[in-house]
Task: structure prediction
Amino acid sequence: MKQSRTPRRLAMKQLASMAAMGVLATLRSGPALASAAIGRIYGTRIPGVQGKVISKQDSNYELWRQAMVWHHSKPQRYPELIVQVQSVEEVVAAVKYAANNKLKVALRAGGHNSTGTAVRNGGMVIDLSALRDVRIDTSKQTASIQPGVRSLQLTRAAEAKGLSFPVPHCPSVGVSGFTLGGGIGLNYAQHGGMATHSIIGAEVVTAEGKLVTVNANENPDLFWAVRGAGPGFFGVVTRLHLQLYPLPKAIMTSSYIVPLDELEIVTSNLQKIRKENDVSRVELLAVLTEHPEAPPEVPPEESKICFFTAFAYEDSVAEARALLEPFARSDLAAKSAVKDEFVEFSMEELYDKYFSLRDPAGRQGRYKVDNVLTNDGSGVLHALADHFRNNAPTKDCHILASYNMNIEHQEDSCFSWVADCYVGCYVIWDKEEEDGVNYDWLSKTLPLMDPFAIGHYPNEVEPRHTDRYRKCYSDEDWRRLEQLRNKYDPSGLFHHYLTQVEARGV
Ligand SMILES: Cc1cc2nc3c(=O)[nH]c(=O)nc-3n(C[C@H](O)[C@H](O)[C@H](O)COP(=O)(O)OP(=O)(O)OC[C@H]3O[C@@H](n4cnc5c(N)ncnc54)[C@H](O)[C@@H]3O)c2cc1C
Result:
């Protein structure tokens, strides 16, 4: 710890001056890393790599290290080298160099992982964010994407061809990390809950430095692992082949707000509506949050709400409207403090209205999250409600329940769990001195929500909590993942899932 303090302070000074120059935004945007002119020659050379190679000795090391992670909870972990590859050949060269020099490898794509898994102690980070090619095959309704592609880029490319993908809800999230670890995307209810099941193939650089094709017929065991292993996958995915879907012609939402004390109105009506109508195609999100316009004099425990939205993605306005009618006819609509019904959107407009980077969901502060996958999402919300009302440490702290996951178990995917609902508890704050209170609040959600868990979702767990990654997989799937890791990466070149000790930074 002591060792890191001085460089950290120096880095803060650098960050402050670079922010003033407007450079920081460019760095955060990731893909610009490879082309940013920094005006110095770096010491380390990797044969076959033209992209930047930044070592611990370089004066801008701390700046680059921090830029590997999008949010502000920068891990206290220090890799030896950061390598910004510009092609698949450079990925191969970097992997071979790491193997020959006994450097463990971690990977960074969109950099959004809440635990900052791209940044590990020692070894090499391969930054894939400059690889941003997207190809759409309209006749096959597929996309082939490189790992630096973000949510918004894929949405736009697919939409231009009349197609769509269940992309991350926030525009800047990397499609690669999101999809490899599961991926609860826009319109998840109609696409099997998890975007990982829409992976139809991949190109993977193995620990041996070999580029292999992975699909249901070629290397099927790697195909199984690619579809769900997420931040513990033992290879570099240089291309994902994705199934696309027809672009919905009508996207419509109905939102309802009730005070948190009346959460029962949301959950009981939701249960009734789902029992009496087929709304299984509708994305249903209930968010416990602080009222964004609560006057400052209102104490935080009195300004909490449940913000419920039903999202219909259909071929016509009439069909979308029909799916949302049961909500409009329900007691939920009658008793809501505020409602906004039958509002039409384009895919891209959804980012702005519901998941923009200005809103709690996408705000760039210090950031942690943990979750359960459950068949009793409403039970979890009620179990968490008091803890949220009375103890939520910041205004942006929120709890999100996504119903109608419609996950199907697939033999050729290591995503283990079939559950109706995902519930995530998010803490977002600004000041380092508030880390403790935020971690503490999140830790206390576990005994409240875990009794309802079927399992956990690997892209949004906090490994400071015991065994969290392990519990993202069934015993059988975990054993098979370990066997495949031994087969494809016998010397442990790629970092394993982040451990509790590493996550705590001790
Ligand atoms: C603002 C925000 C919004 C989000 N919205 C959603 C959402 O709507 N739905 C949802 O399900 N999740 C969401 N997430 C969580 C998101 O899925 C994870 O954070 C995911 O890990 C992000 O992927 P990335 O590529 O951006 O991250 P990175 O931090 O770059 O990647 C995380 C890890 O994944 C592995 N990885 C990534 N790419 C590769 C590759 N090409 N080859 C091998 N391994 C790789 C590596 O181990 C890497 O360290 C959100 C997160 C944030 C911060």
Q: What stands out?
A: Residues 2-20 form the longest helix (19 residues). The pocket of flavin-adenine dinucleotide is lined by residues 71, 106-114, 117-118, 128, 147, 168-170, 173-174, 176-178, 180-185, 230-231, 233, 236-237, 362, 459-460 (CB under 6 Å).
